[in-house]
């Protein structure tokens, strides 16, 4: 044990990078001062937990405890509602602050920001109308100002889905046809934006730039899913999350069951999209992966050990009344959070830091 306590920092750094369980990271970083110093010098690629507030937006580092040095955040992170996150420190936000009112893209690492329109263009047979809109959740395909940057949003407006790219002065609504009736979450996978609704229905969208280099068209595909429906128990809420698997080969749907009578979240189920005629959701053996789930911020990571049971970390982002109610909250609790191990389906671990309710936004994963 004495020899292990003095391992060379390069070896220790490799060990820490293989630890995907927050609890294991914390235990390893408390072995001694040497291990703790190496842990903090070699932060994991796993996301940080962002806790927004008008008073102070804070982040929680995977290694160590709440007193450890935290990643620097720009003051622009205080006050807005966070609607989604992307790698590189980017977020889609909705702000009521006087200095920046409306929607935008914000990078908490660099302070960069890009204003987003607050209106959506809806083509009709009689012409085109524009309507005000409010973003509930949104994801990005790439960081701005890349030509590959597109943003897809679940909205509260006359249209359920809207799309934007740099240079547009207005969002473009989803094409006429199938749209998720009660969209719960969306993700970007294999060149398509995918949205899931409260009936497990799935619709995918692919924005494409016209030959003139400025116009935008949206291709779409409605999956005729075969017979998969969930009957929730009385008083139970079923929340859905979409994300690519750690390898990127599969599109996953995570179903979270929240029962107030049982104290909150009590189980999860993970499904994989099985394309075919017809397509279907098939139960997924989530081994060797750790999933961080949250609306418009979910991401999967390879644990480095294919035989290990899968693990899910989850945030407090489920409210009575469904996803639309995220716009109607006076405060956002941070109590129903934790971890769930695939091999112990009936046990929820209280492994994330407690925080008082936020007055601006649910917690969100910060992909640095």
UniProtKB/TrEMBL annotation:
Pfam (any one): Beta-prop_KIB1-4
Residue ranges constituting the KIB1-4 beta-propeller domain according to the UniProt record: 78-322
Keywords: Signal
Endoplasmic reticulum recorded as keyword: no
Methyltransferase recorded as keyword: no
Signal peptide: 1-28
Superkingdom: Eukaryota
InterPro entries: KIB1-4_b-propeller
PANTHER family: DUF295 DOMAIN-CONTAINING PROTEIN, F-BOX/KELCH-REPEAT PROTEIN-RELATED
Protein's recorded name: KIB1-4 beta-propeller domain-containing protein
Annotated source species: Hordeum vulgare subsp. vulgare (Domesticated barley)
Gene: LOC123397857
């Amino acid at each position: 044990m004495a020899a292990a306590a003095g391992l060379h920092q390069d070896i220790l750094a490799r060990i820490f990078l293989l630890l995907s369980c927050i609890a294991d990271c914390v235990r390893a970083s408390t072995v001694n001062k040497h291990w703790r110093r190496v842990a903090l010098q070699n932060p994991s690629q796993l996301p940080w937990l962002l806790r927004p507030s008008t008073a102070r937006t804070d982040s929680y580092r995977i290694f160590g405890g709440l007193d450890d040095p935290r990643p620097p955040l720009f003051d622009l992170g205080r006050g807005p509602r966070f609607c989604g996150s992307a790698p590189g420190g980017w977020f889609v936000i909705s702000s009521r602050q006087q200095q920046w009112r409306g929607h935008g893209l914000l990078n908490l690492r660099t302070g960069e920001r890009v204003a987003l329109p607050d209106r959506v263009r809806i083509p009709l047979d009689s012409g085109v109308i524009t309507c005000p809109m409010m973003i509930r959740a949104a994801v990005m395909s790439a960081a701005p100002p890349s030509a590959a940057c597109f943003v897809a949003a679940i909205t509260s407006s006359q249209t359920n889905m809207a799309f934007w790219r740099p240079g547009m002065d207005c969002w473009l609504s989803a094409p006429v046809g199938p749209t998720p009736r009660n969209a719960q979450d969306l993700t970007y996978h294999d060149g398509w934006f995918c949205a899931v609704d409260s009936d497990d229905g799935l619709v995918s969208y692919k924005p494409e730039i016209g030959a003139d280099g400025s116009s935008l068209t949206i291709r779409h595909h409605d999956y005729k899913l075969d017979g998969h429906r969930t009957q929730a128990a009385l008083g139970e809420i079923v929340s859905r999350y979409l994300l690519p698997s750690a390898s990127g080969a599969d599109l996953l749907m995570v179903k979270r069951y929240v029962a107030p009578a049982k104290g909150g979240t009590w189980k999860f189920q993970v499904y994989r999209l099985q394309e075919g005629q017809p397509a279907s959701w098939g139960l997924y053996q989530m081994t060797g992966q750790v999933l961080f789930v949250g609306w418009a911020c979910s991401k999967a990571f390879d644990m480095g050990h294919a035989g290990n049971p899968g693990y899910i970390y989850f945030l407090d982002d489920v409210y009575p009344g469904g996803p639309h109610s995220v716009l109607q909250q006076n405060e956002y609790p941070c109590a129903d959070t934790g971890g769930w191990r695939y091999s112990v389906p009936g046990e929820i671990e209280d492994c994330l830091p407690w925080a008082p309710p936020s007055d601006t936004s649910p917690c969100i994963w910060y992909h640095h």
